[in-house]
């Protein structure tokens, strides 16, 4: 049940995605124990990675179909439904699957025809290909303007990339990805580079993490990695449409999907808690199932509104920030209340619930912390107020 009546096509898409996602839950405990087993599970054919790859229609060999129509990779509304169902099965495994993920949004914003062909040609090959999106650095997460990674000429005058990126999803598994670097001082000096991880100067190592372990957050150490002008994304666009501008648009489009992932974890934990606690009325009462059912439906409506706004090219991303803020809070509160209602030892006795508590916490940091979402919301409010004042 989703709580709010969905249009027929989306409801059918949800049903198809839910069925397809079942194997993600089956492998979740093994991947949580040791994330390095995931690539082998993918290669073994046990997981529906092709269907969930999110590749654009021209490169997709196995899109999820509803009736005679394929799922649209560029429809945030449809992807929000699919991603919630993937996360309901397991968010760590879902995020650890091969495919374009966040770097794909940067390609959509910035790549020229040759770069698009290079990127999607590789991703559409027969074998699974992982990608990464490299923005965060050891001392610069919420504040990318202070980025230390640099793109500058080396001793021979050719471009070279140097810097360290941390908490990069799938970084150590990836063959290709997008790295942000400073090329010049000032707000327009940030640029994005398409990086082939087989090049000399690229080194990636998995980090030991607690939540969403299937995503295998990694540290990238990049030293004098050779870069050609053809690797620089957005080189055919004017300076104000490259680097941070494209990153902000990417965040605005990706954030509803992060919100829907947190929602999927909350939904999974809710179903588990309801089923486990129902035989003990006092514990069931402590969990407050009705309150959470209402909040799940409310957050799902916020995610749908944010996804629709993203599909309509919303400039501010305020709806996406509101959805992410509420989805993260719901996932954290719901999983913790379920643990409290189950009583002492619950996290030992219910390993899935223990995993969902850890996964829910990870969403707080992914794609901007709650404080950063609050800043976005305040900014969105002020912009809207100014716009109305000018229009009046
Ligand atoms: C599961 C997961 C996946 C991730 N995937 C990626 C990825 O693929 N690629 C990538 O580049 N990064 C990724 N990240 C990193 C993520 O984007 C950063 O963790 C996040 O931006 C926060 O940065 P930070 O950890 O450096 O925290 P900091 O920026 O140091 O923040 C620390 C604290 O200070 C607060 N704070 C910071 N600035 C302000 C402010 N101006 N006002 C009020 N409070 C503030 C924050 O809210 C937070 O509570 C991922 C992280 C996680 C957990």
Structure description:
There is one protein chain. 51% of the residues lie in helices and 14% in strands. It has 392 residues and is α+β, with helices and mostly antiparallel strands. It has three domains: 8-104, no CATH class; 129-237, Butyryl-CoA Dehydrogenase, subunit A, domain 2; 243-391, Butyryl-CoA Dehydrogenase, subunit A, domain 3 (Up-down Bundle). The protein has a four-stranded mixed β-sheet, covered by helices on one side. A four-stranded antiparallel β-sheet has the order 4-5-9-8, with no helix packed on it. It binds flavin-adenine dinucleotide.
Which descriptors would you attach to this protein?
392 residues, Butyryl-CoA Dehydrogenase, subunit A, domain 2, Butyryl-CoA Dehydrogenase, subunit A, domain 3, 3 domains, four-stranded mixed β-sheet, 13 helices, binds flavin-adenine dinucleotide
Averaged pLDDT: 94
Characterize the main sheet.
4 strands, mixed
Classification by helices and strands = alpha+beta
How many helices does DSSP assign? 13
Can you list the ligands bound to this structure?
flavin-adenine dinucleotide
CATH topology of the largest domain: Butyryl-CoA Dehydrogenase, subunit A, domain 3
Number of domains in the coordinates? 3
- Number of separate strands: 10
Low-confidence segments: none
Please state the second-level CATH architecture of the largest domain.
Up-down Bundle
CATH class of the largest domain: Mainly Alpha
Strand content: 5-15%
Helix share, percent: 40-55%
Radius of gyration: 21 Å
Q: In what order do the strands lie side by side in the largest sheet?
A: 3-6-7-10
The name of the CATH superfamily of the largest domain reads Butyryl-CoA Dehydrogenase, subunit A, domain 3
Shape: globular
Terminal CA distance reads 44 Å
